[in-house]
Amino acid sequence: MTMTTPYPIAIAGASGRMGRMLIEAVLAADDCTLSAALDRPDSPALGQDAAAFAGRASGVTIGADVEAALRASRFLIDFTRPEGTLAHLQACVRHGVAMVIGTTGFDDAQKAAIEAAAQHIPIVLAPNMSVGVNVTLKLLELAAQALRDGYDIEIVEAHHRHKVDAPSGTALKMGEVIAAAQGRRLQDCAVYERVGHTGERPAGAIGFATVRGGDVVGDHTVMFLGSGERIEITHKSSSRATYAQGSLRAVRFLATRRAGLYDMFDVLGLR
Ligand SMILES: NC(=O)C1=CN([C@@H]2O[C@H](COP(=O)(O)OP(=O)(O)OC[C@H]3O[C@@H](n4cnc5c(N)ncnc54)[C@H](OP(=O)(O)O)[C@@H]3O)[C@@H](O)[C@H]2O)C=CC1
Ligand SMILES: O=C(O)C1=N[C@H](C(=O)O)C[C@H](O)C1
What is the per-residue pLDDT for 71? Predict the structure, then answer.
């Protein structure tokens, strides 16, 4: 019987909704080990055991020393905020640590910084790590090609009251996938707001609508609205565990990859 060394994984945003889900997933996976848990220097979680929220002891204390965390790690999974991810990115390049980035809400300059870092380390960047959402993106590619003419496209997403970015990274990715499948660019056709006397809907627009409230984990619906019929493609998340499991699949994928920027289509073989 051959024994392999488990992947040493640091989790950033350890006390966040996704951070906790990821810590549980890493502790439950035979091929992974929790090497470090990071939070902000002013976080009340510092000094606690990383699994204390679940009434368990992991033996890993939540800290704010990024350099020490990365010295002990081969991978960093980061679901924080764009500024946090960007700071961690530079540290990962210095330490040669591979990254799985789930954070959303990056601007163009921040995306360019991630692309530049991927020349030095392997990175999986995806606004949604769930298998179901990524299969939905493939369905949207097909639908967008077949429903190119005569169908108006609207994307509606709903999330919990704590979400800070809109539209969701997933909704934006859906828009990008649809636009690309139709030979267009999202920035040329996206409509993010409608208020007052808007006039008639411009042909070819891709509209976005955002709902925020309660504890909704993440719902996305794309409508293709024609004359006499409409097609709706919906994905609903009922647990954040799917994002955590997808992130561990991304770690396993990165373990055999050189520097480069990858996404969940690469991880799941959907390209
Ligand atoms: N790709 C995917 O599949 C998914 C992506 N997401 C995305 O992941 C991100 C996190 O979501 P969620 O877990 O719900 O958010 P939370 O607010 O629950 O958690 C964020 C964590 O990151 C920490 N943090 C915030 N700012 C910084 C910073 N500048 N530097 C370091 N750490 C920081 C927070 O600390 P503190 O509490 O002290 O602020 C907290 O621990 C969001 O962008 C969300 O859209 C979410 C689910 C799935
Ligand atoms: O903030 C969240 O919760 C989620 N964020 C991601 C996004 O912005 O698409 C993924 C998922 O929808 C949950």
Answer: 98
138 catalytic residue (yes or no):
no
**Which among 252, 251, 219 is positioned nearest to 237, based on CA atoms?**
219
Question: Is 3.30.300.30 the CATH number for 7-125+240-268?
Answer: no
Catalytic residue among 88, 95, 163, 220: 163
CA distance 30 to 250: 16
Q: Domain residues of the chain, as ranges?
A: 7-125+240-268, 131-237
pTM: 0.98
Is the shortest distance between the CB of 13 and ligand 1 below 6 Å?
A: yes
163 is catalytic: yes
- What is the residue type of 74? R
| Same CATH fold assignment for domains 7-125+240-268 and 131-237 | no
128 CA to centre of ligand 2 in angstroms:
7
Q: Is 169 annotated as a binding residue?
A: yes
> pLDDT tens-digit profile of 72-110?
999 999 999 999 999 999 999 999 999 999 999 999 999
Distance CA 52, CA 34 (A): 14
- Degrees, nearest 5: CA angle 193-181-223: 45
Give the right CATH number for 131-237 from 2.120.10.70, 3.40.190.80, 3.40.50.300, 3.30.360.10: 3.30.360.10
The pLDDT, as a whole number, for residue 132 is 98
Ranges in the chain, pLDDT < 70:
1-2
Q: What is the ipTM of this complex?
A: 0.99
